[in-house]
Amino acid sequence: MASKSKARTVIVRMVSSAKTGYFYTTQRLRIGPKLSAVKYDPRVKARVLFMETKK
């Protein structure tokens, strides 16, 4: 049986740095760098930094 190839993309969880527990899920390339983005966190009603963690 042939081996199964890995997917080109991976699903990651972007967790709020405000420690509210709020997160976004998104896809990124498997070989790409770790993601970080400034997005809106409705629990603190402000834009905060979201950092990538594993799903």
From TrEMBL:
Q: Which cellular compartments is it found in?
A: Mitochondrion
Q: Name one GO biological process term.
A: translation
Q: Which InterPro entries does the record match to this protein?
A: Mitoribosomal_protein_bL33, Ribosomal_bL33, Ribosomal_bL33_sf, Ribosomal_zn-bd
**Coiled coil stretches, renumbered:** none
Main localization is mitochondrion
Q: Which GO terms describe its cellular component?
A: mitochondrion; ribonucleoprotein complex; ribosome
Q: Could you tell me the keywords of this UniProt record? A: Mitochondrion, Ribonucleoprotein, Ribosomal protein
Q: Name one Pfam family in it.
A: Ribosomal_L33
- What does the similarity note say? Belongs to the bacterial ribosomal protein bL33 family.
Q: Give the matching PANTHER family.
A: 39S RIBOSOMAL PROTEIN L33, MITOCHONDRIAL, LARGE RIBOSOMAL SUBUNIT PROTEIN BL33M
Could you identify this protein by its name?
Large ribosomal subunit protein bL33m
Q: Which organism is it from?
A: Rhodofomes roseus
